[in-house]
């Protein structure tokens, strides 16, 4: 009887583990954290040949820039308009710069 209970327990753990693995890595719980992560991704023109104008946040220049998107795949650092890109990414970049300045002993104001 004890062996049967262990087998049931092991089978249950196997099912739970399989479901968690099948779902993949968990998404960020905070939607703002997801956007910030997307803004930090490199430009990815994607696949296909549709030549769609999109905008991405260039984390080096800290500016939104236009690029030609292929239309398939790519990553989440692509926005339909310059305004959408700026709203999503520039504020977060400015807040991060202020935070870094405070840590270094400077007052960014």
UniProtKB/TrEMBL annotation:
Q: Does the keyword Signal apply?
A: yes
Q: InterPro entries under this entry?
A: Kunitz_BPTI, Kunitz_BPTI_sf, Prtase_inh_Kunz-CS, TFPI/VKTCI-like
Please list where the region (Disordered) is annotated.
90-109
**Which PROSITE patterns does the record associate with it?**
BPTI_KUNITZ_1, BPTI_KUNITZ_2
Which domain of life does the protein's organism represent?
Eukaryota
Q: Which residues form the BPTI/Kunitz inhibitor domain?
A: 39-89
GO MF terms, alphabetically ordered: serine-type endopeptidase inhibitor activity
What does UniProt give as GO cellular component?
A: extracellular space
Family matches, as Gene3D superfamilies: Pancreatic trypsin inhibitor Kunitz domain (4.10.410.10)
Signal peptide location:
1-24
Keywords of the record, alphabetical order, are: Disulfide bond, Protease inhibitor, Serine protease inhibitor, Signal
Give the SUPFAM superfamilies listed for this entry: BPTI-like
PANTHER family for the chain: BPTI_KUNITZ INHIBITOR DOMAIN-CONTAINING PROTEIN, KUNITZ-TYPE PROTEASE INHIBITOR-RELATED
- What name has this protein been given in UniProt? Early lactation proteinlike [Sarcophilus harrisii]
Q: Which organism is it from?
A: Lepeophtheirus salmonis (Salmon louse)
Lineage, opening ranks: Eukaryota, Metazoa, Ecdysozoa, Arthropoda, Crustacea
